[in-house]
Amino acid sequence: MKLRKLATFGGITLGVLGAGLAIHTFLPQRFAIEAPWYEAKKEPVPRLHTSSLPEIDVAFLRCGSITLPEAIAVRGASPLASCVITYSAVLVCHPQATFLYDTGLCANISTYFAHQSLFIRKLLGSFELEQSLNSHLTAMGIAREEIAFALLSHLHWDHVSGIPELPGVPLRVNRVEYEAAKLGLLDAHNGLVRQLMGDNPIELFDCTGPPYEGFHASFDVFGDGSLVLVPLPGHTAGNTGLFINRSNGPRLLLLGDAAWVSQNYTRPATMHPFLWNMFTWDDATARQTLIELYHLARRHPEIALVGMHDAEMQERLMATERP
Ligand SMILES: [Zn+2]
What we know:
Layout: H1 2-24, H2 36-39, E1 57-69, H3 70-73, E2 82-94, E3 97-103, H4 109-113, H5 118-123, E4 128-129, H6 133-139, E5 147-152, H7 157-160, E6 171-174, H8 175-182, H9 188-197, E7 202-205, E8 219-220, E9 227-231, E10 240-244, E11 251-254, H10 263-266, H11 273-279, H12 283-299, E12 303-306, H13 311-318
Parallel strand pairs: 3-5, 5-6, 6-7, 11-12
Antiparallel strand pairs: 1-2, 1-4, 2-3, 8-9, 9-10, 10-11
């Protein structure tokens, strides 16, 4: 009898502890965002003069989506609110080249998931395909031959899933990302990413240019200051952001997956630890990048920082972009 009481008591204690831990993962987490060196600096931050820069048109091509509780995308957010996560490509039209930043989804993405385990199909493959990359390009009257290259923010499956509709188009990848992916990401899930990348030529680039807007290195794509790549590591080893500076619209920073949605850097807050731990290459580095984005957003409210899964921001920006 005593033993049974003890077992019941132990079970209840474990249950309460477990519930406590589960609730804890939905509570906000402290970030070291204090920066007295910056707060004390009262003079206004100089703004980039964009009038002499080229006109660059930008279009977010939303290929798919999934609706999640916001507390999954943003730790500490209300568990009652929901949040749309998109799978997008970005079409960038610079006078020297029309290219893509990430690639969205191809029409037959489901066939690439057919041989995955049930767990992977449910975890990664339960998005809704809305409009494939090719369908977007066709609707816009853009031939595949006009796409000079696809710049990949990083090598997770959901950023390379439009490549089957871009045969022969060169893929530009940060060398850090590619070298790291060769050690694991390319072959994960039975080589899903390798299959999606097909035999497209790969062109590696290095962010060996000077510090830029607080980031320690950069790569100026056309050497005119309009398109500047910066390392935003942590989510993966070589996740790379793209600044778009132009005379015909607001400055943008495309984040890859350094943040899923804007609340990740405005609060700042990671995703729910369940996803964060599953998808993040290096926790400390990814948090540092979020802190840097937090400060950048405060220093430069005129720059729109856009995550590749951020439906709300992408929609808001598309409302003001010219068609
Ligand atoms: Zn992603």
